[in-house]
């Protein structure tokens, strides 16, 4: 009976407090209690605390966060956030592979990116793994480690003689074999000692296919594949205009900085101008092909303007700049001839806009693209020779021609000029040549402008509009600087996607996130060199490094956060992407032609391990030397294990190489480029070229590309 009265008293007090404080208040249910008078053995009366409380204990109280305060809304308690589950909990998150998974080929780098988007944002559920308890994931850490390959994970491997993976490691050319694309279970006792830490962190080694194009023998950027997400098809967002990162500062750049080099012009099929050739027999014997002309430029140095003649702050550097666009019609099978030319000066005024009658009869006006009709051409008497003569009068040594895929226009004009700015080269396709981004897309992306609206209709294209669009793109690039638009592509930056569509759930964001709420996810990019000049500049936090040790420290800092929270938020960011490069440099996978060792973003300087100051007696008694590769792998494994040990619970951990061994592919690609350069040089003879490119070399390149596209990856949960 006494217990029943106490319960009634408790309910009465709670109701009175709720009425007095209003519909929403906090009550300390742990410390507020009903006190009863209790007589002690010495006769004194002291208050005692009843076992009852203002809130009945629920079965899930053990899983609630501590603190004891309960929020009351509209007279009803709101459930508090759940604790991070323990590893033995039934709701601990996981990423599991099953033989019943829908896996029919190697996973690729894009699959890893999409896994991240599924866990943290609006990505589709993967079919090749099972993701358990997605709402419970707290963080994701993805580290790119080029230089690793599957052959290294064989027990008993002699690293001192290891030179690279065997060609058989690449994907076969026939029907995919499950043994090639299924993940391999990692067993510690079957791994080399230096790589055994991987078995403590990951259950499987995954074959991962690097992005590339087998048809053109190209390996695409794995970094771009990871950090670029496709735009959601159902969002109807279209092309998103370029956005500048926080802290962006314009850097006015002269147009001469964007001139295509002789090598770029030759590689992209531009007509050869004699000034592009080195002084000597080839230049002296140069002759234009029949019907062709070249501008009056004797030497490339003739185009340079003395600084005293250049107006201060001028981006044209004293040069005459003309935007060119042409329209063509078909005069034969796969043969196009000039039918309209438009030339626009730097100030936007039209210098030349002429219709041209081809020498051959037109068999298809291609009006839906060219905008040219029979009625327009019939009364025209202007010929190609007339246009060539006028252009030779306009263009001189100090003239720059700019346009989009200008090689096609110059071939239609049968004209060669050595000073070219091409927007298809200035804003390259993210997957590299021979692919090019359309002028329509560039205008939408970088000018927020719609052009070529008549494409595919009887109106066709407007060559003046296209020329002015190219002009405005180059002007914008000159105003913003070389880095502007460099990291933009046809997808959406992964860091931006996570910030825009990052999803939180009730377990991490409270009741208002029940079912998932797009609240955005914070991120960090940790990499060698200046991260702000790469796709990582869109991350919440950027950490630039000069060594793998700094990368490790940067990852741990991004995970834990800064004590003051001024740069890295307290508690760390949600997603971390990083890259370690010392193994890549040691293996020779790093392209040293682009950066020198002393640069902040360059590979570490090579060391001479062949010489030693140890005397002969000590050499005889010394233990066998450890190879640099084995030492580097040991250090790498220890770094990754330290990072893993410092990860908070419920963190997805991904390590991937990005590519396989690219060295042989790079050698053959350089050989192919040299062959094309020499072959396309006027006056060259096939049997006198310094290199030859036959079907044998072509097949070797295809096999080398398969090896380069055979990467590996590891997926686990801390």
TrEMBL record:
Pfam families according to UniProt: RNase_T (PF00929)
InterPro entries from the UniProt entry: REX1-like_exo (IPR034922), REXO1/3/4-like (IPR047021), Ribonucl_H (IPR013520), RNaseH-like_sf (IPR012337), RNaseH_sf (IPR036397)
Alphabetically ordered keywords of this record: Exonuclease, Hydrolase, Nuclease, Nucleus
SMART domains, sorted: EXOIII
GO molecular function: exonuclease activity; nucleic acid binding
Major localization listed first in the record, in broad terms: nucleus
Classification via SUPFAM superfamilies: Ribonuclease H-like
Compositional bias of kind Low complexity: 36-53
Record Gene3D superfamilies: Ribonuclease H-like superfamily/Ribonuclease H
Family: Belongs to the REXO1/REXO3 family.
Protein name, per record: Exonuclease domain-containing protein
Organism: Sordaria brevicollis
């Amino acid at each position: 009976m006494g217990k029943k009265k106490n319960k009634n008293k408790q309910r009465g007090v709670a109701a009175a407090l709720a009425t007095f404080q209003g519909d929403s208040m906090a009550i300390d249910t742990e410390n507020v209690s009903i006190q009863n008078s209790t007589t002690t053995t010495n006769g004194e009366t002291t208050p005692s605390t009843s076992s009852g409380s203002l809130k009945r204990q629920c079965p899930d109280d053990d899983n609630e966060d501590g603190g004891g305060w309960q929020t009351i809304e509209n007279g009803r308690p709101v459930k508090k956030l759940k604790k991070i589950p323990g590893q033995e909990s039934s709701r601990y998150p996981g990423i599991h592979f099953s033989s019943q998974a829908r896996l029919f080929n190697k996973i690729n780098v894009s699959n890893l990116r999409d896994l991240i988007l599924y866990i943290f944002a609006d990505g589709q559920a993967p079919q090749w793994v099972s993701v358990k308890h997605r709402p419970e994931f707290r963080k994701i850490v993805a580290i790119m480690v080029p230089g690793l390959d599957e052959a290294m994970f064989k027990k008993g491997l002699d690293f001192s003689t290891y030179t690279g993976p065997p060609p058989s490691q690449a994907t076969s050319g026939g029907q995919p074999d499950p043994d090639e694309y299924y993940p391999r279970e990692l067993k510690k006792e079957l791994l080399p000692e230096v790589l055994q830490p991987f078995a403590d962190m990951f259950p499987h080694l995954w074959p991962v296919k690097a992005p590339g194009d087998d048809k053109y023998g190209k390996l695409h950027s794995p970094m771009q594949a990871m950090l670029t997400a496709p735009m959601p098809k159902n969002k109807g967002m279209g092309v998103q205009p370029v956005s500048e990162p926080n802290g962006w500062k314009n850097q006015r750049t002269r147009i001469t900085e964007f001139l295509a080099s002789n090598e770029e012009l030759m590689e992209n099929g531009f007509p050869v101008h004699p000034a592009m050739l080195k002084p000597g027999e080839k230049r002296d014997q140069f002759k234009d092909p029949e019907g062709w002309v070249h501008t009056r430029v004797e030497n490339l140095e003739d185009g340079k303007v003395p600084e005293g003649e250049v107006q201060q702050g001028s981006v044209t550097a004293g040069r005459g700049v003309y935007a060119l666009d042409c329209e063509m019609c078909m005069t034969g099978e796969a043969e196009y001839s000039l039918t309209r030319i438009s030339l626009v000066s730097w100030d936007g005024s039209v210098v030349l806009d002429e219709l041209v009658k081809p020498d051959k009869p037109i068999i298809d006006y291609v009006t839906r693209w060219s905008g040219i009709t029979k009625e327009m051409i019939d009364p025209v008497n202007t010929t190609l020779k007339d246009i060539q003569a006028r252009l030779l009068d306009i263009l001189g040594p100090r003239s720059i021609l700019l346009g989009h895929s200008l090689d096609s226009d110059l071939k239609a004009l049968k004209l060669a000029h050595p000073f070219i700015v091409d927007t298809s080269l200035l804003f390259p396709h993210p997957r590299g040549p021979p692919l090019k981004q359309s002028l329509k897309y560039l205008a939408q992306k970088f000018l927020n402008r719609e052009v070529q609206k008549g494409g595919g209709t009887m109106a066709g294209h407007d060559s003046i509009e296209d020329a002015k669009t190219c002009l405005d793109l180059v002007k914008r690039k000159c105003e913003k600087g070389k880095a502007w638009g460099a990291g933009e592509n046809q997808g959406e930056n992964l860091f931006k996607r996570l910030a825009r569509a990052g999803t939180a759930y009730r377990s991490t964001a409270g009741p208002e996130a029940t079912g998932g709420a797009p609240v955005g996810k914070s991120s960090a990019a940790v990499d060698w060199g200046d991260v702000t000049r790469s796709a990582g500049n869109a991350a919440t936090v950027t950490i630039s490094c000069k060594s793998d040790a700094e990368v490790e420290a940067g990852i741990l800092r991004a995970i834990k956060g800064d004590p003051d929270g001024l740069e890295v938020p307290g508690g760390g960011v949600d997603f971390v992407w990083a890259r370690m490069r010392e193994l890549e440099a040691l293996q020779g996978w790093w392209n040293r032609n682009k950066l020198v060792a002393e640069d902040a973003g360059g590979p570490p300087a090579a060391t001479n391990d062949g010489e030693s100051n140890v005397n002969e007696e000590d050499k005889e008694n010394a233990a066998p030397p450890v190879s640099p590769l084995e030492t580097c792998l040991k250090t790498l494994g220890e770094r990754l294990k330290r990072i893993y040990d410092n990860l908070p619970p419920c963190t997805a951990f991904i390590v991937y190489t990005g590519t396989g061994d690219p060295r042989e592919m790079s050698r053959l690609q350089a050989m192919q480029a040299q062959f094309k350069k020499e072959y396309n040089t006027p006056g060259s003879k096939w049997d006198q070229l310094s290199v030859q490119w036959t079907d044998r070399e072509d097949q070797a390149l295809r096999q080398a590309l398969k090896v380069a596209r055979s990467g590996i990856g590891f997926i686990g949960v801390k």
